[in-house]
Design brief:
It is a single chain. It is built from 13 helices and no strands. The chain is mainly alpha-helical. It has one domain. The N and C termini lie far apart (77 Å).
C-alpha cells in the first residue's frame, strides 16, 4: 500500500501545481459531491420536477452513504492530508501541497463517500432525464447527453477530492464504481407510497445495525476513533475539523432522512398536484428554508445531544420539501370554490 499511497500523493501534488488557478472550481465540485448536497440541494430540485425521482434521490443517497460508512469502518484507508505528515518518505523532500477548508474530514478514507454517493444519486437523475428525452424525441443521441454529463461530473468530483488531499486516486475509483452499481440497483426499488412502518423499520435497522457493527469491532480491539485522532493532529487548521463530517454524523443524517421521508408520505400520501409556476415557487421557498435549516448551529457537547439534534434536523428536511412548503403554496394559490 505504501507504493500506492506514494503515487497517489505525487498525483495530488501534480494536480495542485498544474491546476491551482482552478482552485475555486475544484472546491465547488467537491461541495457538489458532498452527500449533504444530495439531500439539501438535489432532493428538492428533483422532487419538484419529478416526484418519484426526488424520492429516489433521498432513498439512494441514504443507503449509499450508509454502506460507505460500513465499508470505511471495515476497510480503514488513510487520507492523503494526514498520511503525508505521518509518513517519513517526504521528510527530506517535502511535498508542495496545500490543505483546504473541506480537506479535513474525520472518517477513514476508503472508499470515497463523495464519489460513491455522487455516482449513485446522479445515476438516478441522469437515467430519468435520458428516459424522458428518448420518450419525447425518440433520439438516442439526445438521450445519451445526460450520460455524457454524468461522466464529466464524476470525473470532476473525483479529481476535486484528489486535489484537496481528501482521498487517494484508488479510493476515488472504488467509490465511483461502487456508486454507479448502487445507483443502478437501488433505482429499481424506489419506496414511493410505502407505509410509515417500512421507513421506520429501515431507519432503525440502519441505525442499530451500524451501532452493533461499531460495538463488535470495538470489542475485538479495533479502535474506530483512530481517524479522528489523526484528523485533529494533522489538519492545518483546527477549526476545519467539524463534527458534521464525523462518521456518526453521516449515520444520523441517513437514518433521519429516511424516517423523514416516511413521515412526509404518511402526512400527505401522494402529495399535492401543482402546476409548474407554483412548483417553481415551492423550489425557491424550500431552498431558502433548507438554507436556514443547514446553517442552524447545533451544540457540539455533549456528543449525544449533537447527534440527536442532527438526526432531527435531517428528519425535518423531507417534511419541509414534501409537506410544509407545497401545502403552504397549494393553499396560497388555490382558487376559491364558487358557491
Amino acid at each position: 500500500m505504501e507504493i500506492i499511497y506514494r503515487q497517489g500523493v505525487l498525483m495530488a501534488e501534480a494536480l495542485q501545481l498544474r491546476t491551482r488557478r482552478f482552485e475555486d472550481f475544484w472546491l465547488v465540485a467537491s461541495h457538489m459531491g458532498d452527500p449533504k448536497a444530495a439531500v439539501l440541494l438535489l432532493f428538492p430540485l428533483a422532487f419538484y420536477v419529478h416526484r418519484r425521482t426526488g424520492i429516489a434521490v433521498i432513498w439512494v443517497a441514504a443507503l449509499s452513504e450508509w454502506l460507505n460508512l460500513v465499508l470505511k469502518w471495515i476497510l480503514f484507508g488513510e487520507r492523503p492530508y494526514w498520511w503525508i505528515r505521518q509518513s517519513d518518505l517526504f521528510s527530506e523532500n517535502p511535498l508542495n501541497v496545500q490543505q483546504f477548508i473541506s480537506t479535513c474530514e474525520t472518517g477513514p478514507g476508503s472508499p470515497s463517500g463523495h464519489a460513491m454517493v455522487t455516482g449513485a444519486v446522479w445515476w438516478v437523475i441522469v437515467s430519468s432525464l435520458a428516459a424522458f428525452f428518448h420518450a419525447r424525441t425518440g433520439s438516442k443521441v439526445l438521450a445519451a447527453v445526460p450520460y455524457l454529463f454524468y461522466a464529466v461530473l464524476l470525473g470532476c468530483v473525483g479529481l476535486s477530492r484528489i486535489f484537496i488531499l481528501a482521498h487517494f486516486p484508488h479510493q476515488v475509483i472504488a467509490g465511483l464504481l461502487t456508486g454507479v452499481m448502487l445507483g443502478v440497483c437501488l433505482n429499481r426499488s424506489v419506496p414511493e407510497g410505502r407505509p410509515l412502518l417500512f421507513f421506520l423499520g429501515y431507519s432503525m435497522a440502519l441505525l442499530f445495525g451500524a451501532l452493533l457493527l461499531h460495538s463488535a469491532l470495538q470489542s475485538i480491539g479495533i479502535d474506530l476513533s483512530w481517524s479522528i485522532v489523526l484528523a485533529k493532529r494533522w489538519c492545518s487548521h483546527s477549526e476545519w475539523v467539524r463534527m458534521d463530517t464525523a462518521p456518526f454524523s453521516s449515520l444520523t443524517r441517513d437514518t433521519g432522512a429516511l424516517l423523514g421521508l416516511g413521515l412526509a408520505q404518511f402526512w400527505k400520501p401522494g402529495g399535492w398536484t401543482l402546476p409548474w409556476v407554483p412548483r417553481t415557487l415551492c423550489l425557491a421557498l424550500s431552498s431558502l428554508a433548507l438554507h436556514y435549516v443547514n446553517s442552524f448551529q447545533l451544540p457540539t457537547f455533549p456528543p449525544l445531544l449533537f447527534y440527536s439534534l442532527f438526526f432531527l434536523k435531517y428528519t425535518l428536511v423531507p417534511q419541509v420539501v414534501m409537506v410544509l412548503i407545497p401545502g403552504f403554496v397549494h393553499h396560497l394559490t388555490a382558487k376559491p370554490k364558487k358557491d
